[in-house]
Structures are given as structure tokens and as C-alpha cells.
Design a protein that fits this description.
The structure is a single chain. This protein is an alpha/beta fold and about 450 residues long. It is built from 17 helices and 15 strands. The radius of gyration is 25 Å and the shape is globular. It binds pyridoxal-5'-phosphate.
Length: about 450
């Protein structure tokens, strides 16, 4: 039994009291909800009517999202509610296998003990701890930039960049396949907006050449998440130089593992330092927990700290998450072993699938889209894989172009090579059964 304050009742009595209070409170709440349902407000009835139509529309379009519920930690093998046994997991962004890495979990635990669960504050009021500054400094050094600002997510980093930086005098040039967070971030700003066809340097040059804007900002994903292909960073840099533009790269699917030392797409493309601004996530390879950041010129970071809305008006990242990210950066920087394992797994998968007669799109990246074409066939392929204990997800229109349905596979350093071979074998078997490849 825990010791209690002399004025407090003994712990057993306290527990009994809180259980009774909970029962009384729950009873009151249930009665309240019941009453509300009996005489529903007109506005809520209207809301149900409108949403029912919208929801039916989503179901008719076959784009309803079914969420599977994991009953185990994120890992290469997961348990799924309602299913027996474990599934081999090939659909997380857990590229380095750090999401449930013992050292990362232990660091998070220590962060929790030392600094508490959260800050109950935004950064500029009283939400900045030494560890937030330490993580920002570490990321600045990691990328070789001038300064870094942390956000709760990379979605927030992108949502907070364009509106803060660009005015109607300025222009932004965005790849058509850029991530939703970039699209939304651009929507929020008042700059002149241009979209160039995916990785099309000629079209981009045409747009840049005709722009009289004060600041010109080119923004691209480093690696495109649905296709596993890489932005032409060298060509983009050359155009940025020719037209006095800035180059920003969202490296969420590259930071920590892509390129020899994990510095991301610019390193992979042999042009380290090419981007003026990098936005990235701490919720994929680096820790898998949560968080995002923008790194680049110090004046930009100062401006963002002062006017970027998702930074100013949202809680500081919680200490256990920050501690997990710091430990993950140690693991990323101190050894190349995880990156080598990831590369080897990617090679085994891509070569095995090609030998089996299947088409895997994308560049030499652990995002491996298995191209199918028809939406129904892609969904059959994913379902067949699930029956064989391999968890993968099918994507079809409107997430990817019509006729471009696919099953996306993502490899992790934590997969054993035999896990990868098992997945290849299962793909070959199911693909044969559904007529995607010859018997
Ligand atoms: N940018 C890209 C390219 C992404 O793929 C994602 C996540 O899917 C994000 C940004 C958002 O990252 P976060 O989960 O940190 O908000």
C-alpha cells in the first residue's frame, strides 16, 4: 500500500471513493445523453441528414477507410483485433525499426520520469525545455543548416511555412504529387500559386521564367510516398539558381535512412546541401513517435518562431517524444548498420518480386508499390496477402491515378531477410491465384 498524507483517508478508502464517484458520474452522463437523444436539437438532426449523404458518397466511391486495430506495439510483427496470431507488417513508415526499439522506449521512459508527461503550454509561453533546444540543435547539426524549429508534426511544419513566409508579391511552385500537408499549407498563403507536372523540370522552368515574383519558392517531396520515386534535386537546384529561387524539400520519407549517412534525398542524389529549406518528420524513420521540423536559414527560423501559427498556437512536443527522438538521432548517427539492413531488405524484395514477374515501381527506395492497375485486383491482392498473414494495403483512385491501383509495401531494417522472402513468396502465390501473373 502507498503511504498517504496524514489528512488523507487510507488508499483503499480513496480507491473505493473514486470508484463510487465514477459510477455516479457515469450514470448521470448516460442519463444526459439519453435525454439529448430523446429531444434532439434541430441543428444536430440536420447535421445527421447532411453527413449521411456525404458518408454514403464515400462508401459508393469505395474510398471508405477501414481502420484495423492493433493490439500490440508497432513492429514488424503485429497483432490485429479480431484476428488470430500475428501478421508480418509491411505497411508502416518504421523504416529503421525504431518505433519499438528498446533503447528508444527506455529513453522515452526516462524523459517521462525526468520532465513529465507534457508541457501544458505552447513553446513561447512556458513550453520550452532544455531538451527541445537540444533536439533543435541536434537537427541543425545533422542537416548542416543554420537553425531548426520543432513542430508537433511535419503536417504542422508544412501548414506553418508558406503563410508565414510568402505574401502576394511572392510565388510558390509545387510538384503536382506533393503531400497533402504541402497542398494545404499552400492553400493558406496568399502567394501566387503554380503547380508543375510531377518531376517535370521543363514545365517548371517555363513557369519560373515567366514569374516576376519577389521571392520564388520551389517545393517538392524528396521521395513521393505513393510512388517511391525521388525528386530530381540536382535539376531543381540548377533551376533555383538560374531563376534566383529558393528550394524547399519535404524529406519525410528520407530523413535518417536515405543516402549513405541518412541525410536524406539531397545526399542520395549526390548534392548534399542543395535544399535551402528542409521540412521533415520525426514520426517515421527517426523514432516513429511524432514531431516535425523546419531547418534552414536562421532568419527564416526566427520568423517562424514569431508568426508560424501551428507553432505559436499548439502545445510543445511532449518530453517522452522529444527524448525518443534524441535517442533515435544517436542511433541514426552512430551506426550505419540499420541503414545497411534496410537497403539489403529493399534489394531482396525488389529483386524477388521482379523475378516472380511482378512490377515494383519507384526508385531504389523501401517504398515499393506493387503495380496492379485495376482497383478490384489490387484489393484482391491485399486481401489474399492478409489471409497469408502478411499485412499490406491497396491504394486506388482517387489516392493514386485511375488505372494505377497498387499494393504499397514498405520495408524496415527490423524485418528479417526471411520475413521479406516470405512476403515475396506470398505475393507470387496470390498474384498467380488472382491471374495477375501466369501460373
Ligand atoms: N510530408 C510527407 C511527405 C508525408 O508523407 C507525411 C506523412 O505522411 C507528412 C509530411 C506528415 O508527417 P507527420 O506525420 O509528421 O505529420
Amino acid at each position: 500500500m502507498f503511504a498517504t498524507h496524514p489528512l488523507q483517508p487510507p488508499v483503499d478508502a480513496m480507491a473505493l471513493r473514486s470508484t463510487l464517484l465514477r459510477i455516479v458520474f457515469n450514470g448521470q452522463q448516460t442519463r444526459q445523453i439519453h435525454e439529448l437523444k430523446k429531444k434532439e436539437r434541430a441543428g444536430v438532426t440536420k447535421l445527421r441528414e447532411v453527413l449521411e449523404d456525404r458518408l454514403q458518397e464515400i462508401k459508393r466511391a469505395k474510398t471508405w477507410k477501414h481502420e484495423r486495430i492493433l493490439t500490440s506495439p508497432q513492429d514488424t510483427k503485429v497483432k490485429v483485433k479480431g484476428s488470430e496470431g500475428e501478421f508480418l507488417n509491411f505497411c508502416a513508415n518504421n523504416y529503421l525499426g525504431l518505433a519499438n526499439h528498446p533503447e528508444v522506449v527506455e529513453a522515452a521512459r526516462e524523459g517521462l520520469s525526468k520532465y513529465g508527461a507534457g508541457l501544458s503550454s505552447v513553446r513561447f509561453i512556458c513550453g520550452t525545455q532544455t531538451m527541445h533546444k537540444e533536439l533543435e540543435d541536434r537537427l541543425t547539426q545533422f542537416h548542416g543548416r543554420e537553425d531548426t524549429i520543432l513542430y508537433g508534426s511535419c503536417f504542422d511544419a508544412n501548414a506553418g511555412l508558406f503563410e508565414a513566409l510568402l505574401t502576394p508579391e511572392d510565388a510558390v511552385f509545387s510538384d503536382t504529387l506533393n503531400h497533402a500537408s504541402i497542398i494545404d499549407g499552400i492553400r493558406l498563403c496568399k502567394a501566387q500559386k503554380f503547380r508543375y507536372p510531377h518531376r517535370d523540370l521543363n514545365e517548371l522552368e517555363h513557369l519560373l521564367a515567366h514569374s516576376q515574383a519577389r521571392l520564388k519558392l520551389i517545393i517538392t517531396d524528396g521521395v513521393f510516398s505513393m510512388d517511391g520515386n525521388v525528386a530530381p534535386i540536382k535539376g531543381l537546384r540548377d533551376l533555383a539558381d538560374k531563376y534566383r529561387a529558393l528550394l524547399a524539400v519535404d524529406d519525410s520519407h528520407a530523413t535518417g535512412f536515405f543516402g549513405e549517412t541518412g541525410r536524406g534525398t539531397e545526399e542520395y542524389c549526390g548534392v548534399t546541401g542543395a535544399a535551402d529549406i528542409i521540412c521533415s518528420t520525426l514520426g517515421k524513420a527517426v523514432s516513429g513517435a511524432a514531431g516535425g521540423y523546419t531547418t534552414g536559414p536562421k532568419e527564416l527560423v526566427s520568423l517562424l518562431r514569431n508568426v508560424s501559427r501551428p507553432y505559436l498556437f499548439s502545445n510543445a512536443p511532449p518530453p517522452p517524444v522529444v527524448a525518443a527522438c534524441l535517442k533515435s538521432l544517436d542511433l541514426v548517427e552512430n551506426s550505419s548498420e540499420l541503414r545497411q539492413r534496410l537497403r539489403e531488405n529493399t534489394r531482396i524484395f525488389r529483386e524477388g518480386m521482379t523475378a516472380a514477374g511482378l512490377t515494383v515501381a519507384g526508385d531504389d527506395h523501401p517504398i515499393c508499390p506493387v503495380m496492379v492497375g485495376e482497383a478490384a485486383l489490387a484489393s484482391d491482392l491485399a486481401a489474399g496477402m492478409l489471409e497469408r498473414g502478411v499485412y499490406v494495403v491497396a491504394f486506388s483512385y482517387p489516392v493514386v491515378p485511375k488505372g494505377g491501383a497498387r499494393v504499397r509495401v514498405q520495408l524496415s531494417a527490423a524485418h528479417a531477410p526471411d520475413d521479406v522472402r516470405r512476403a515475396v513468396q506470398a505475393f507470387a502465390d496470390v498474384a498467380r491465384n488472382i491471374g495477375l501473373i501466369q501460373k
